[in-house]
Design brief:
The protein has 205 residues and is α+β, with helices and mostly antiparallel strands. An eight-stranded antiparallel barrel has the order 1-2-7-5-6-4-3-8. A hairpin with a 2-residue loop joins strand 1 and strand 2. The longest helix has 12 residues. It starts with 27 loop residues before the first strand and ends in a 9-residue tail after the last strand.
Length: 205
């Protein structure tokens, strides 16, 4: 299962995203409507275009609807030597949903982004394995950046945007009841995920 941790390497493959470079233009916004309220995201189309297009493909096809925030990681109780505080979301098919091919890892070394509070990023195993599962950072987590030690490969995770409204909802989900395996009990459902405005042309089928 794709968590924020470790393990296998996989072959690189791109999603249906048509762009290899910055798209330019205004950032794209997405509203995640959850049982606890709305989380508004601003996606960094100019800095992480492949990751943005990958995420938008799941949004526009309705694949997050009926999904959930299913995991909460709390730094104070996290057993990893590099503890973090995040919440993780997925489609109804779970964290291993690979309906689309994996997206190439856009490292924070190259994008200039970092895993600060409110950042949205992709869950993965090895580099170039992220598909649909994502997480939102609750507290600054440099261990998730390129060169950080959260993942032993040191490649970091693919940050691609930030929360612009609804951090109160994020905090509420983060503090919700969970079991010993960091699984929310119960998960917090994602009722809808919608693009506010137009999808960038390079991300359209």
């Amino acid at each position: 299962m794709k968590y924020l941790a470790i393990v296998t390497l996989a072959a690189a493959a791109l999603t249906g995203c048509a762009t290899e470079g910055p798209m330019g233009g205004d950032p794209v916004r997405v509203d995640l409507v959850t049982e606890r309220g709305v989380i508004t995201l601003e996606l960094a189309t100019d800095k992480a275009p492949l990751t943005v297009c990958n995420f938008l493909s799941y949004v526009t096809d309705g694949h997050y609807e009926g999904g959930s925030f299913f995991r909460t990681v709390v730094a104070e109780t996290n057993a990893n030597p590099n503890p973090i505080s995040v919440i993780q979301g997925a489609t109804p098919r779970g964290a291993d949903d690979d309906l689309n091919p994996p997206v190439r890892l856009e490292r924070t070394r190259d994008t200039g982004l970092s895993h600060r509070a409110g950042t949205i990023s992709m869950a993965r195993d090895g580099p170039d394995t992220a598909t649909s599962s994502f997480f939102i950072v609750v507290e600054d987590a440099p261990a998730l950046d390129y060169g950080g030690a959260r993942n032993p490969d040191g490649q970091g995770f693919g940050a691609f945007g930030r929360v612009t409204a609804g951090m109160g909802v994020v905090h509420e989900i983060h503090l919700s009841p969970a079991d010993d395996g960091e699984q929310l009990t119960p998960p917090v459902r994602i009722l809808a995920a919608t693009v506010v405005g137009d999808v960038p042309a390079p991300c359209r089928p």
